[in-house]
């Protein structure tokens, strides 16, 4: 997927520009072909980790507020929406239904990430418009696997 660049080792100063060139080319490819995910923030430290990990497989945008999320969703096309649920954002589930009302987002995967393991919590998330549910704590590999699946990556 990424272009190969042969680097001639003339001196250490000539390697850095070649590596920068390869990185720039790789970023162009990702920008042209990658799918996009919107992360609706919860815990900044956890989200930063998720965002950095997910940037390896897709383009990511991160927002903190529900209203900003709706505004950005109307202006962009996202393949997956990840919503962090928790004590500080208990009303966040209402946004899932509002997202479903936006043309083009009726069937977009919405992944709820929460610390509640209860069956009732899972059912409520699914009833409110989320299509998938992930309980914290989880392994980052589980998140990557699920997001890859939702994006249609193999």
Describe the structure.
The chain has 154 residues and is an alpha/beta fold. The protein folds into 2 domains: 1-33; 35-151, 3-Layer(aba) Sandwich (Rossmann fold), CATH 3.40.50. 47% of the residues lie in helices and 16% in strands. The protein contains 6 helices and 5 strands. It has helices at residues 12-33, 44-54, 66-75, 93-100, 119-127, 140-151, and strands spanning 36-40, 59-63, 80-84, 110-114, 132-135. It has a 5-stranded parallel beta sheet with strand order 2-1-3-4-5, with helices on both faces. Strand 1 (36-40), helix 2 (44-54) and strand 2 form a beta-alpha-beta unit. The radius of gyration is 18 Å and the shape is globular. The two termini are 14 Å apart. The model is unreliable at 1-12 (pLDDT under 50).
Low-confidence stretches: 1-12
Average pLDDT: 78
- CATH superfamily of the largest domain, by name, is Response regulator
Q: List how many beta strands DSSP finds.
A: 5
- Number of helical segments with 4 or more residues: 6
Largest sheet: 5 strands, parallel
Might you state the CATH topology name of the largest domain?
A: Rossmann fold
Shape type: globular
Gyration radius (Cα, Å) is: 18 Å
Number of domains: 2
* Helix and strand pattern: HEHEHEHEHEH
Strand order of the largest sheet: 2-1-3-4-5
In which range does the helix fraction lie?
A: 40-55%
């Amino acid at each position: 997927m990424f272009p190969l660049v042969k680097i001639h080792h003339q001196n250490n100063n000539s390697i850095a520009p070649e590596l920068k060139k390869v990185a720039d080319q790789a970023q162009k490819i990702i920008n042209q072909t990658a799918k996009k995910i919107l992360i609706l923030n919860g815990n900044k430290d956890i989200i930063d980790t998720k965002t950095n990990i997910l940037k390896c497989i897709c383009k990511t945008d991160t927002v903190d507020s529900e209203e900003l999320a709706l505004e950005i969703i109307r202006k962009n096309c996202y393949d997956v929406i990840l919503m962090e649920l928790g004590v500080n954002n208990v009303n966040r589930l209402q946004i899932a239904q509002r997202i479903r009302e936006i043309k083009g987002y009726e069937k977009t995967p919405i992944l709820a990430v929460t610390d509640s393991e209860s069956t009732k919590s899972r059912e409520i998330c699914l009833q409110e418009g989320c299509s998938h549910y992930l309980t914290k704590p989880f392994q980052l590999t589980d998140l990557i696997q699920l997001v890859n699946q939702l994006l249609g990556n193999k």
